[in-house]
C-alpha cells in the first residue's frame, strides 16, 4: 500500500490517523523538497516503526517513482508530505501511476497552507480567486502570475501568492523579494499594485509566525522571520474583512 500522508507544518499537526499509519509503515519516505517544516523532520521517527528515509524530487519522479510503486506492492510505504499531500505539490502523477499499476493507495489529509491562510487571516474563504506561485524570474518572467492577480482583482477576489522554494539549492523566496519582483512586472504592465493592500505571511502556524498587512510596496519595511513566506493580495475588502485586516493582520491606521 502507498500512503500519501499529510504531516501539516509542525509535529503538533499530526492527526491520530497520521500517527496510526506512521506506526503501521514498513518504511517512511519523507518529502523534504516541497515545503519547509517547523520541527526537524527526524521528529517523525518517534512515531514510525519502520525505516525513515529522505526523498529528493528525483526519488519521486521517473525511475525513482517506479521503484517506490513496486515496493508498495508488498509493503506499507508512507510518503510523508508537509501540509496536505495533494495541495500545490507534484505528487499527482505518483498517485495516478500507482493506481494504474494496481497498487492500493490511501490518502491521509492534514492542514494545508491554503487552509491556514484562508482561516487565519480574517478574509472570507469564498472571496479568494485562483492561487498562484511566484517564481524567480531567471528563465522567464512570471507574467502569468501577475495576470492572474489582475484577473482576481477585476473579479474582486483575493489572491494567495505562494513563493518559490528551491530547497535543493537552499533558496526560498522572501516577502521583500516577492514584492520587488511583482512591482517590476506591474510597472511593465498595468501599474496598479502600488495602492493595493497585501498581507505578508511568514511561518504561519509556527511558534514565531508573523502576519502583517499594508500597501504592497510598504511590506518591504517589516522584519519578517525567515521563510517559508507567502503573500496575499487583497481585493475590495468587506467591512468585516477590513476589521480583520486591522486587528488580525495589524494593518496600520
Ligand atoms: C508547495 S507549497 C506547499 C503545499 C503543501 N502541500 C500544503 O498543502 O500546504 C509551499 C509554499 O507554501 C508557502 N508556505 C508553506 N508553509 C508556509 C507557512 N508556514 N507560512 C507561510 N507560507 C508558507 C510558501 O510560499 C511555500 O513556498
TrEMBL record:
Its EC number is 2.1.1.98. It comes from the Archaea. S-adenosyl-L-methionine binds at residues 84, 87, 112-113, 163, 204, 229. Coiled coil: none annotated. Pathway: Protein modification; peptidyl-diphthamide biosynthesis. Gene3D superfamilies: Cobalt-precorrin-4 Transmethylase, Domain 1, Methyltransferase, Cobalt-precorrin-4 Transmethylase, Domain 2. InterPro entries: 4pyrrol_Mease, 4pyrrol_Methylase_sf, 4pyrrole_Mease_sub1, 4pyrrole_Mease_sub2, Dphthn_synthase. Residues 1-216 form the Tetrapyrrole methylase domain. GO terms for biological process: methylation; protein histidyl modification to diphthamide. Transmembrane segments: none annotated. GO terms for molecular function: diphthine synthase activity. Keywords: Methyltransferase, S-adenosyl-L-methionine, Transferase. Belongs to the diphthine synthase family. This is Diphthine synthase. It comes from Thermosphaera aggregans (strain DSM 11486 / M11TL).
